[in-house]
């Protein structure tokens, strides 16, 4: 029975992945999901209330809860890392503080299971701005400015990716880095299509619903994308959320220009 573990199910990425998994045709699938608020998850995805416990197990706990974290990951063949932030701050560490207990849990399983340990696939949600092989911004200058403004978030993502890369070299896991462009409508279910891009040009925006579907597809094509960075590009029209994204950039700019 394949177990898919979703770390962070109430945000735009996690909820989109869950909706995709719930409607998927993956044989004998079981879903484990770790959230801080079960009530928030059920409000976002009401169908979970009527879903059989043989299909979904919900763990309500912070990522600092070692027992819940290990229980969620135990036996998982696919792990979706969806605990993230879009808002810049001076203490952006969420990617690293998620990676640390994840790796500790996998090390615990390997020590416990010995030669029977099977390394899972970890799908790490990063950003296309950090992918040198995929171009989605109008110019290199715009890209450099965006990375500079959102430095706290991107630095955290780079450090976490290095942690996963080291663990992959140790045989603890297989990491696939999934790089979206700007993602729109975290609470939406509209999907207009996507394509996977390893090298070349990509659309500047993508719906969360399409990103969730892409994450699940990439997880199913793990042998093809193992150890790689994969961009996700929209193939249909995407409505921009100008104000929300402008506020994020202004917040990042304030963090960079002011000492407090």
From TrEMBL:
| Record's signal peptide | none
Looking up Gene3D superfamilies in the UniProt record yields: NAD(P)-binding Rossmann-like Domain
- A Gene Ontology molecular function term of the record: oxidoreductase activity, acting on the CH-NH group of donors, NAD or NADP as acceptor
What does the sequence similarity comment in the record state about its family?
Belongs to the avfA family.
- What name appears for this protein in its UniProt entry? NAD(P)-binding domain-containing protein
Q: Which organism is it from?
A: Friedmanniomyces endolithicus
């Amino acid at each position: 029975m394949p177990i898919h573990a979703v770390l962070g199910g109430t945000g735009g990425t996690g909820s989109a992945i869950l909706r995709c998994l719930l409607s998927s045709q993956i044989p004998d699938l079981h879903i484990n999901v770790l959230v801080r608020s079960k009530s928030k998850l059920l409000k976002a995805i009401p169908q979970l209330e009527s879903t059989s416990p043989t299909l979904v197990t919900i763990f309500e706990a912070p990522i600092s809860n070692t027992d819940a974290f290990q229980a969620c990951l135990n036996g998982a063949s696919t792990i979706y890392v969806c605990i993230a932030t879009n808002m810049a701050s001076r203490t952006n560490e969420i990617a690293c503080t998620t990676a640390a207990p994840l790796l500790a849990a996998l090390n615990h399983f390997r020590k416990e299971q010995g030669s029977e340990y099977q390394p899972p696939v970890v799908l790490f949600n990063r950003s296309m701005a950090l992918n040198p092989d995929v171009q989605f911004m109008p110019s290199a200058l715009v890209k450099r400015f965006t990375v500079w403004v959102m430095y706290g978030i991107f630095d955290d993502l780079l450090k976490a990716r290095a942690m996963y890369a080291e663990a992959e070299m140790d045989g603890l896991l297989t990491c696939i880095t999934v790089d979206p462009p700007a993602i729109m409508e975290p609470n939406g279910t509209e999907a207009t299509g996507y394509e996977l891009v390893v090298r070349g040009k990509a659309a500047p925006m993508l719906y969360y619903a399409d990103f969730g579907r892409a994450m699940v597809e990439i997880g199913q094509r793990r042998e093809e994308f193992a150890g790689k960075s994969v961009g996700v590009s929209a193939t249909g029209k995407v409505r921009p959320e100008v104000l929300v994204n402008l506020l994020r950039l202004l917040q990042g700019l304030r963090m960079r220009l002011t000492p407090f």
